[in-house]
Amino acid sequence: MRFRIRVFVAAATLVALFAEDRAPLGTYTPVERRHWAFQPRATPAVPKLAKNPIDAFVLARLKQEGLLSSPKADRTTLIRRAYFDLIGLPPTPAEIDAFVADRAPNAWEKLVDRLLANSHYGERWGQHWLDVARYAESDGFEYDTHRNGAWRYRDYVIQAFNSDKPFDKFLMEQLAGDEIAPANEEMRIAAGFQRLGPLRKNAGNQDVASNRNEVLTEMTNAVGAALLGVTLGCARCHDHKFDPIRQADYYRIQSYFAATNEEDIVHAPAEEQAAFKAKKAANDEAVKKLKAAMKGLKGDDLEAMKKKIAETEKLAPEPLPALYSVMNDAAKAMPVHLLARGDIQNKGAQVGMRPLGVLLPDGAPERTTLPENPRTKLAEWIVDPTNPLTARVMVNRIWQGHFGRGIVGTPNDFGRMGMRPTHPELLDYLANQFVAGGYRMKPIHRLMLLSDTYQQSSSSAREAALAKEKDPENKLLWKYSRRRLEAEEIRDAMLVVSGTLNPKTGGPGVIVPVEKDLLQLIYNPGQWAVNPEVKEHDRRSVYLLAKRNMRLPFMEVFDSPDLQISCPRRESSTHPPQALELLNGDLSNRLAEALAARLQREAGPSKAKQITLAYRLTTGRPPMPAEAQLAAKFLASQPLREFALAVLNLNRFLYVN
């Protein structure tokens, strides 16, 4: 109890301290404007310590702390690291051999360029953006209704990354694609970004104003977290406690969405649409009657009726092809007011549209009349090269994808309660390069991977004791930070090494089999209609149905996000259920069986060759003598599938060094 009181007092003191910096309404104090994230980007001089500017900035910081960088990792480690970081899949033994044998001075550069041009790059880095964009194919909450056509946004993102679409254009399309080119399908799909968050659908009486406010709130919060890297949502109920974001700022951003309404653009002729409506109405009526008849039933009769309802629901017609998008409807634009405690019933003054005040001169006016394309105006401000947040936020996300931790360790929070940048000059240098290079991401990837900093060993003993004492979290990058593969990477790697990966791309989310007990946890089990074609179940994880109320056990146990809000960074926990899933789970055992068959097929009957191939497929290298000896002893008494299952549990398989 004493500890809790102290924490409360400390927090209260902190709030009071920051409150002293507050200026009168509509103005901002020099202290508020001085926070590093709201300052214009600097143009730092690159230290003359290395050829690659990243190395120069990192070495300067290490030198300042009296630390040394680690030596270069071996080639087998480097190629595996690059493959997982850029395309999320392991290299084949042949690809490893070719790289190790390539003695050309630009061998590493050629490898990086080849991976950046690989179509799997968009699948890997598209998943990073889908995490941030809170992508899912269902509504969440009680009903968790599936979203017809939402998968098209996922495919749009993957294609955008593969084509290296400029990031400013990428954001413009997602915020205002329907305004910019309403007849363009791709632009309409991109605008579906605004509808990706969870949506409450209540039965019975509806409070239309409250429901609408929840939708606008979700759209506004996403802009703050995903695009600007600030906790804008904290100002919904009151002025932000720590950052210079007023409650008025929150609702001024929300005003840009006041006329935004959902629109499902059906891709079917009028006759087909009419037939669909008639079939759906008949099915809905049949289900309604069965549910009414279920009242009062018990025991076997109740179970039989539930089964009949589920079977009837399955007879509902498949949804017609549609684009999941938005549109402006000025007639439905809801006036935006300041809301005391965020309560739609406690309206204050009406506000107009304006970007964040701390980035504007004091007294900057707000737009009180609805322009023709309001979200285009917001998007133009967000991607403006002078906006100090947008470019910093995105290059920080790219850095995190390669080094495990952002230069700013809180990717969705660049505010005063977020972490300060470990290398502020480097962050601004990269952001400047990003903008000057036309907001293209692949050159930034390339710059990072070609640095000596990225190519360091993760297990160097040199200066390790001193470095661990001074920088135990490796924030200063004196070595490469070893990382556990993410859920999708583990599943996809298992599919690859077992030889079962289905390379098909795009299309509706794949529904895979799950245990019956799990189906009882969702509102309508009939929604979980497993894809009948078994081969579809072995597609890459990015193509699995992203359902909010049904996270697959294998993905959940390895820290896949819950899809309710923007996920800035995947956690990497370690706990017993992970081992249980890998040893006893249906997926791991099925793929172990397939891996065993592959070993027999490609290595023949020789146990030694089977062991070598198994290690090369899963770890990227041959077994050490002790490992080979232990494996041979194991195979002398155990079937090959058990050995295959064991190598899928190796740390060397599950981690990138």
Notes on the protein architecture:
The chain is mainly alpha-helical. Among the domains are: 166-267 and 321-384, no CATH class; 270-320; 484-656, no CATH class. The chain is 48% helix and 4% strand. The protein has helices at 2-19, 30-33, 53-64, 75-87, 93-101, 107-116, 120-132, 151-162, 167-180, 185-190, 208-228, 247-255, 270-294, 299-314, 374-383, 390-403, 424-436, 442-449, 464-470, 487-497, 516-519, 553-557, 576-584, 586-603, 607-619, 625-635, 640-647, 651-654, and strands at residues 260-266, 322-328, 337-339, 347-350, 483-484, 655-656. It has a two-stranded antiparallel ribbon. The longest helix is centred in the middle third of the chain and has 25 residues, at 270-294. The model is unreliable at 1-20 (pLDDT under 50).
Which SSEs are present, and which pair or pack?
Elements: H1 2-19, H2 30-33, H3 53-64, H4 75-87, H5 93-101, H6 107-116, H7 120-132, H8 151-162, H9 167-180, H10 185-190, H11 208-228, H12 247-255, E1 260-266, H13 270-294, H14 299-314, E2 322-328, E3 337-339, E4 347-350, H15 374-383, H16 390-403, H17 424-436, H18 442-449, H19 464-470, E5 483-484, H20 487-497, H21 516-519, H22 553-557, H23 576-584, H24 586-603, H25 607-619, H26 625-635, H27 640-647, H28 651-654, E6 655-656
Antiparallel strand pairs: 1-2, 3-4, 5-6
